[in-house]
Amino acid sequence: MRVLVVDDQYINRYLLEKILEGHGLEVVSAIDGIDAFEKVQAGGIDLIISDVLYPRMDGFQFCREIKSNPAYKHIPFVFYTAAYTEEKDQEFAFRLGADRYILKPTDPSEFINIIKGLIAEYPELSGFSTDPALMKEEQYLSEHNKRLFHQLEKKLIELEELNQALRRSEERYRNLFENVNDAIILHEILPSGEPGRILEVNTVACKRLGYSREEMLEKKISDIETPESAARYREIQPDAETARVTSFEGEQVAKDGTVIPVEINAHLYHENGMGFCLSVCRDITVRKKAMNELSRALSQINRNIYQMATIGDKIRNPLAIIVSTCEECRGERTEVVHSVVQNIDEFISELDQGWVESEKVRAFLQKQYGIGNQEMNHTKAI
C-alpha cells in the first residue's frame, strides 16, 4: 500500500511518515497540492492523507482535482488538519468527496485505527460514489471561498488577540521599566568587550544625569562615566563575560559635571550574534556619605580608645608617687590623701571599663561595615 502524505510542514510530514512506515505502509510526501497532484499523475498512489492549509493549491482544491478526475477519484482521500476544525469545514470536505476528516492532534494509535478501517473498505471504494458533479462549479467556488474567508477571519481574530497580548506585555514592561527607582541603561557590548552605544534608557536615568532621552541615545557609555569607573569595568570585564551577571561600584557624570557614585548590577547577554548589557544603576550618594560619616566616627572612637588606654597610666603613676611620699612623711593629712587617691583610682577604673566597651563597639563596626582597620592602624602610629 503506497500512501501520499501532503503537508507543507516538515515535522508534520516526518511524524506521519514514521507512524505509517511503522505499520508497513510505503510513504511518498509532497509539500503542496501542485506537488501532490504531480506525484498522483506519476502513478502508484493508493491512499492520500492531506492537510488543508498549505501554499499554492490548498487541500480543498487538491481534493476536488482528485475526485473530479475519473482516473483518480477511486483513491481514498483523508484530511488531517489542525486549522479547519469546524463542522462546516468537515461537511464541505465530504461534499468534495473526502473519505475521512481527522483533526489534529490525534493519538497515533487512534489515527492508525482510522486508516486501517478505511483500508479495509478499500476494495469497495472503486464503486463508491464520490462524483463531485453532485456539487456544481458555482456552488463549489462559493463554498470553497466561504471556508477560506472564514478561516482567514479566524486567523485575523487570533492575530489581533496576539497583538493585544503583545501590547499589554509591552505596556507592563514599559511601566516596570519607567517606574523603578533606579536608572536602567541598555547598551551594546563591542567585539573588543568594551561598552558601546546606549540603546535605551528609562526616565530615572535621564533625570539623574540631566539629559533628554534623545541626548542619551546619542551617547556612548564612556560619555557618562569617569575614567576610574571605566578602568574598574575593564578589570572585571573578563569575569563578567563568564558569569553574565556582575555587580560593582562606579561613577557616572551628569550633564552639569556632577559625579554621582552608583552601584551597578550588569546583566550581559547575546542576541543575533551581538553583545548587550542591561545595567541597573542605583544612586549610592547617601550611602557613601553615611559610610564616610561612619568612618570618621570610627576614627574618633579609635582616638578615644588610645587616649583612654594611656590616660590611666599617666594619672596612676603620679598618684603612686604621691601616696609613697605621704607614707614617708606620716603627716596628719595622710589619710585624706589616701582617700582622694582611692577616689581618683576608682574614676580611672571606670574609664578603663569605658575603654573596654569602646573596643566592643569598634570591633562590631569593623565587622559589620568592613571599615576602620586603616584608621585603627593610623591611630596606633600616632
From TrEMBL:
PROSITE patterns: PAC, PAS, RESPONSE_REGULATORY. Keywords: Coiled coil, Phosphoprotein. Residues 2-119 form the Response regulatory domain. The keyword Iron-sulfur does not apply. It holds the Pfam family Response_reg. Residues 246-296 form the PAC domain. Residues 169-235 form the PAS domain. Residues 145-179 form a coiled coil. One of its GO terms (biological process) is phosphorelay signal transduction system. The modification 4-aspartylphosphate is found at D51. NCBIfam families: sensory_box. This is Histidine kinase.
